[in-house]
Amino acid sequence: MTVHVKTYCELTKDELYGIMQLRIAVFVVEQKCPYMELDGRDRDAVHVWLEDGNGIAAYLRVMDRGVEGPHVSIGRVVSARRMQGLGRRVLSEGIRAAREHFGAGSIYLEAQLYAKGFYEKQGFRQISDVFMEDGIPHIGMLLEPDPAGES
Asked: Residue 120 falls within a domain, yes or no?
């Protein structure tokens, strides 16, 4: 399994196509949720994914403070294959990228409510009431700075 971390400008056309294909397959088609997947924020993101011989296995994007809110944020967390630890691994790589690229301490994400336990196992805690986004219940979650004192 290869880990990739790239800015938008570093992505090849084929990499971008593979990322969009996975995101649309899961978030739009599988979840039956028609929404603007191409939201204009990918240009501002650091893209993190795991790849194997079958292509992109898991993906997320990381954005700096001010793109979506006051915190560095992680979004579009998706795995092509469930129950294989891919989500946990790509999230760990995303947290690392958030700290290395943006000096993140606190990291924010909006989780689909059903995934709350998954994110809690990675250290995130719920910081909002349930809200609806694109017809799906979500919660805001925050990972606090690590004890090493990163800001």
From this structure: yes
Q: What is the pLDDT of residues 61-70, one digit of tens each?
A: 999 999 988 9
Q: What is the pLDDT of residues 108-149, one digit of tens each?
A: 999 999 999 999 999 999 999 999 988 889 999 999 986 655
Q: Are 48 and 93 in contact (CB under 8 A)?
A: yes
Is residue 137 in a domain? yes
Residues in the chain: 151
Do the Cβ atoms of 104 and 98 come closer than 8 Å? yes
CATH at 106: 3.40.630.30
| Reported pTM | 0.91
**How far apart are the C-alpha atoms of 32 and 2, rounded to whole Å?**
30
| 138 in Cβ contact with 108 (< 8 Å) | no
